[in-house]
Design a protein that fits this description.
Blueprint (H helix, E strand, L loop, with lengths): L1 E2 L4 E12 L10 E16 L4 E2 L7 H17 L5 E7 L9 H17 L7 H16 L5 H8 L3 E4 L8 E4 L6 E7 L6 H14 L1 H24 L2 H17 L5 H12 L4 E5 L7 E6 L5 H7 L3 E8 L5
Parallel strand pairs: 4-5
Antiparallel strand pairs: 1-2, 2-3, 3-5, 3-6, 6-7, 8-10, 8-11, 9-10
Helix pairs in contact: 1-2, 1-3, 2-3, 2-4, 3-4, 5-6, 6-7
The chain binds (3R)-3-hydroxy-3-methyl-5-(phosphonooxy)pentanoic acid.
Length: 312
């Protein structure tokens, strides 16, 4: 974060979950990486602490954002700053837009509150977690932790949710993902809630599938550290199958998964909460040409290197 006497800015990165979404809520490991795009919070001195709500939000989204900001402001001692947001992330697509908002606001409020001193990572995570609880109810914390740490991580929710177990993952090989935005979906809160209801109804079967997702997430973490992209791709395919079995995919998401595999992906899966739409990721050794080909087929895609030489 950088600042002057007149104004401050703070950044929160978006994220992509490579493996383990949903199961991570139940204490299993997940693997996630930050994106280079995200949300910027801009602050200027004011008499009181407040947020200028962005245009284009629905009533419920405005309410949630205002309540989340109030929670963070309270946790940071209400520093006298007026905050506005600039986002590069589409909302509710699985790219961690609420976590990026939370991290950018937490960083800014803490820095202003400390007279310009950069905040400790742990404090940013605590305040961002407070905001994420307003947005999502019971977040595992993987989204905002990935955003704060700024590197590919293996994440396990802690007994105290603000104290997760986090291990950075080093990849000896460039890890290239192609991300496809597969249209609108419901909220994370809804999809986590409906999975919880099914897990309550059929606990044995659902807990077994969730535990399997945790196992493949760890197999994927090992494959990343060994530079074994073929194994990682296979793990991603299996993870998608398990998410499908849990009722978290859709015809639209499955067809994008197949389009990515046909375009040469070593593995492909939905990423994030899933549902009707959202983001689908494919792993490629070499993404050049893939995005243009997918876009010619009518899909909205971009490529990003999430780990390995060049980004670590
Ligand atoms: O909101 P999304 O799409 O980034 O999904 C968050 C990941 C979940 O595992 C579904 C929820 C959580 O709290 O970890």
């Amino acid at each position: 974060m950088s600042g002057s006497r007149a104004s401050w800015t703070a950044f929160g990165a978006g994220k992509v979950i490579l493996l383990g979404e949903h199961a991570v809520v139940y204490g299993h490991p997940a693997v996630a990486a930050p994106l280079s795009v995200g949300v910027r919070a801009l602050g200027r001195p004011a008499k009181t602490c407040g947020l200028v709500l962005p245009k284009g939000l629905g009533a419920l989204q405005r309410q949630a954002l205002a309540a989340a900001f109030e929670r963070a402001a309270g946790a940071c001692g209400r520093p006298p700053v007026q905050v506005r947001l600039e986002s590069e992330l589409p909302r509710s697509q699985g790219l961690g837009s609420s976590a990026a908002v939370s991290v950018a606001c937490a960083r800014l409020l803490l820095e202003v509150g400390a007279g310009g001193k950069p905040p400790l990572l742990g404090r940013v995570e605590e305040v961002a977690h407070e905001m994420e609880c307003v947005f999502h109810g019971t977040p595992s914390g993987v989204d905002h932790t990935t955003s704060v740490r700024g590197q590919l991580i293996r994440f396990v929710k802690g007994p105290l949710v603000a104290k997760p177990r986090v291990r950075p993952l080093r990849s000896p090989t460039p890890l290239w993902l192609v991300l496809v935005l597969a249209g609108d979906r419901g909220s994370t809160k809804e999809s986590v809630g409906s999975l919880r209801a099914r897990t309550g109804k059929w606990p044995e079967r659902y807990r077994r599938l969730l535990a399997d997702i945790g196992k493949v997430a760890d197999e994927g973490a090992k494959a990343i550290e060994a530079g074994d992209l073929e194994a990682l791709g296979d793990v991603m395919n299996v993870n998608h199958g398990l998410l499908h079995a849990l009722g978290l995919s859709s015809g639209r998401l499955d067809s994008v998964v197949h389009a990515l595999r046909e375009a040469g992906a070593l593995g492909a899966k939905l990423s994030g909460a899933g549902g009707k739409g959202g983001v689908v990721i494919g792993l490629f050794r070499e993404p050049r040409g893939v995005v243009a080909r997918l876009e010619r087929g009518g899909l909205s895609a971009f490529a990003t290197q999430v780990a390995g030489p060049g980004v670590e």
